[in-house]
Amino acid sequence: MSGIRRRLVGAAGTWVAVLAVVGVAVHPERCPPVDAAAARRAAVAAVGWFGASIDDSGKFLYGYDADTGVELGGYNDPRHAGVLFSLYQAEAAGIDGAAAIADRGLAYVDRHTRRAGPGAVFGRGRQVPTGATALLVIALDERQRATGDASRDDDLRAYGRALLATVTAQGAVEATIDAEAGTGTGTRSPFATGQVAYALARLQQRFPGERYGAAAVRILSYLVAARDDTEDQFPMLSDHWASYGLVAMNRWKSPPVLDGATRDWIERQFGLFGVQVRYESQRRGGLTVFTRGRTAMASGVGTVGEGLANLARVAATDPVLDVDDVAVGHRLACVAGMLVERQTLSPDPFPRADPVAVTGAWFRLGVTRMDDQQHPLSALILLQHYLREP
Amino acid sequence: MSFLVAVVAAVVTVNPLRVWPGGPGRSRSRRVLCAAGAAVMVLAAVMVVSGLSALVLNALKISVPTARIGAGVALVMIGGRDMIFGPARPEPALAGLKAAMVPMAVPHLFGPGLGVLALSAGADLGVIRAGAAVGLALVVAVAVVAQPPPGRIGARVARAGQVLTGAAAIVVGAGLGADGVFDI
Fold first, then answer.
1. How confident is the model at residue A53 (pLDDT cuts 50, 70, 90)?
2. Which of A18, A264, A265 to mutate to probe the B interface, most B CBs <10 Å?
């Protein structure tokens, strides 16, 4: 081999080595095509799953192993409230019957609501997760929006008072409430902060003359400026509940003006949600299992869709935000496409499973949990507005 | 990726101090002609790659931020190579001015780092600005290669500069990668 040829072969080797490593870092992103009608059909199927999986006590099927046909144990009150929220969202979006299913779930809520200090809390045990009450507030307010029924307004106020007691002067949120004293217990959790911010933002919109707004703004300031450092959140949390809160604050009669720090935070949140969409869309089975892992739980993918869709709504009202609308549109459609494609619409893949526990659900490794339907349902309802009509 | 970042990324990817000892011969005119000829060829290739970036990335289903991550990874690898391995060698080379093609254009100037960077910069900045960024880096490279081959001390200085530039490539590559990760 001549020296020149050897040199060129060596150069080619460098190209191959670099491109091979780049190929491991950079995978094709597979975003299944989807339109608004397909997203809506998937949402309807998810509502159908909830309708089939709720029992007479108002509890939903919590977890299910479709490979073995075995119902998994446990129950989670924040997720129960979250499911109610997604169902009322569906009703508000025009999916008839969703609210009726959620109303059946209120039986469980009523059994586990207690007076606590100045207000009321939802949850079991002495220490109840703040998120359960916050998500219930969100759900009940969405219920009023969807059905026009204001019969639970006094409950909303009672829950709201309990939530106000969880907000510290700094704007942090107590993750659990002592159900007897009605006070926080000094704990923190990743999502309670955004959940309470959203709940209080909705209460401010609903009852503008009452004092929820200041606490919501205080939490938002804490979220933006201090939460990740103070609560040792690393990497930075992608907070879909906070994104809902921003949308709710935008609906106030006098929405808070976004300052530079908040805009920076929103832009970073866009990035966090965006990279999750891109990463998830690179998971295509085969060898990508080794480089990207298996597909995420549908609940996780759904939260990404919720977060992105909400931030897109915020960005649409704030021309100062530096966001690539085209890229956002691609990511929104990509999440919707993945969710629609991954939904199980036939019991055929799971011969040992109860068909009604399978149809309309999302499974990962044969297992589903009720929030695997909750978050995709919420996401699809929000995302359909960004998809083309068929 | 801003234009300035693209210029810096292109300079550290080309690493003119690594290329300097690899210039053909001792004749200044031959070195200038070969380096300039190589720069024109490389720039043309970069413009083609940048111009096709949207087409290529669409075909490969790779988003613009993800391509930036790829460019960052390539820069980190090239930077590592430049820190570990010695400078470019002038021989073997094609005879006369054909040395502009081998070894000046390939492999000295146009390597995988510049190729992937051209793809990403083309998608981020468009073909004109991507070409301008790489063009500036090539001008620097031509100016350096036009100098006589380094002597003993010059070679040590070039080697130190090559290593520092390689380290800079790693830093720039990591920054590009992080930018790609946290972009929408």
1. very high
2. A18
How far is the alpha carbon of A11 from chain B, nearest alpha carbon, in Å? 6
pLDDT value for A147:
97
Q: For Cα atoms A112, A146, A253, give the angle at the middle one, nearest 5 degrees.
A: 100
Nearest-angstrom CA–CA distance, A93 and A64: 28
Cross-chain residue pair B111–A15, CB shorter than 8 Å = yes
What's the gap between Cα A224 and its chain centre?
Answer: 19
> Is residue A235 very low, low, confident or very high in pLDDT (cuts 50, 70, 90)?
confident
Query: Which candidate, A63, A107, A146, A72, places its Cα nearest to that of A361?
Result: A63
Stretch A46-51: mean pLDDT, rounded?
Answer: 98
CA distance B184 to B181: 8
Is residue A1 predicted with pLDDT exceeding 80? no
Contact A198, A141 (CB under 8 A): no
Residue A235: DSSP 8-state: S
- The pTM assigned to this predicted structure is 0.91
Instruction: Please give the DSSP secondary-structure letter assigned to residue B148.
Output: P
Contacts of A18 in chain B (CB under 8 A): 74, 77-78, 111-113, 116
Which residues, including other chains, have CB under 8 Å from residue B141's CB and lie 6 or more apart? Answer: B14, B16, B19, B35, B39, B109
A18 contact B CB<8A: yes
Nearest residue in chain B measured CA to CA from A11: B107
Instruction: For chain A, give the number of residues.
Output: 390
Cβ atoms of A201 and A217 within 8 Å: the answer is no
- A271 vs B contacts (CB less than 8 Å): 181-184
Question: What's the pLDDT band for A75 if we cut at 50, 70, 90?
Answer: very high
Cβ–Cβ below 8 Å for B73 and A25: yes
Query: What value of ipTM does the predicted structure carry?
Result: 0.93
B111: closest chain A residue by CA:
A15
| 8 Å CB contact of A18 and B182 | no
> A14 and chain B: CB distance < 8 Å anywhere?
yes
The answer, yes or no, to whether residue A292 has pLDDT greater than 80, is yes
Q: Is A268 on the interface with B (CB under 8 A)?
A: yes
- Indicate whether A221 pLDDT > 80: yes
Q: How close does chain B come to A131, measured CA to CA in Å?
A: 28
Distance CA B9, CA A214 (A): 47
A113-116/A127-129 β-pairing: unpaired
pLDDT at A121 over 90: yes
> Could you tell me how many residues make up chain B?
184
Write down the residue that tokens 């609308």 correspond to. Answer: A325
